[in-house]
Specification:
Length: 163
């Protein structure tokens, strides 16, 4: 199964554009009216926090379970064609998947995938899925459950044959 949230890119670009227009408008208004010099600092500080928040949650998520390997990609939405400074991509064999967990905070969602390395130790990989649609997330969960179930069946089959 292959899915992603590429349709969200246009919405995030629109939000960035609106934030930029708002910043220019606020700078013009507060510069022309010097009546509230301290209030303008608080407005710009709040505005800066909103921009950082949007930048933090705006991530592209791609899931691909076709073939023998599982590929999960997380990258930023703005300037990703030129600079991939926020890209996180993991590719591993399906039999190394141990478990997964979705953490749904109030305004932030995380997919945590536990993977077994060649030494037998497990490590976790975290992916931002905040802008991923609920329906698509349901399909990703089903796919991950199916892979884990196959891994458990395969392990039990190997253990039964040894005894």
């Amino acid at each position: 199964m292959r899915t992603d949230n590429r349709n969200v890119k246009n919405k995030i670009i629109s939000i960035y554009f609106l934030l930029l227009v708002t910043a220019i408008l606020l700078a013009t208004v507060f510069k022309s009216y010097d009546a509230f010099p301290k209030a303008s600092m608080y407005v710009f500080l709040g505005f800066f926090i909103v921009v950082l928040f949007v930048h933090f949650i705006a991530r592209y998520f791609e899931y691909d379970s076709d073939g023998a390997k599982l590929v999960i990609t997380n990258k930023g939405l703005i300037l990703t064609d030129f600079i991939n400074y926020r890209q996180k991509k993991i590719e591993f064999a399906k039999h190394k998947l141990v478990s997964y967990k979705v953490y749904n905070y109030l305004i932030y969602k995380i997919l945590v995938v536990s993977i077994q390395n060649s030494n037998g130790k497990t490590y976790d990989e975290h992916f931002n899925i905040t802008l991923f649609k609920r329906r698509k997330l349901k399909y990703v969960k089903q796919s991950l459950k199916r892979i884990i179930k196959q891994n458990i069946k395969h392990k039990r089959g190997v253990d039964v044959r040894r005894t």
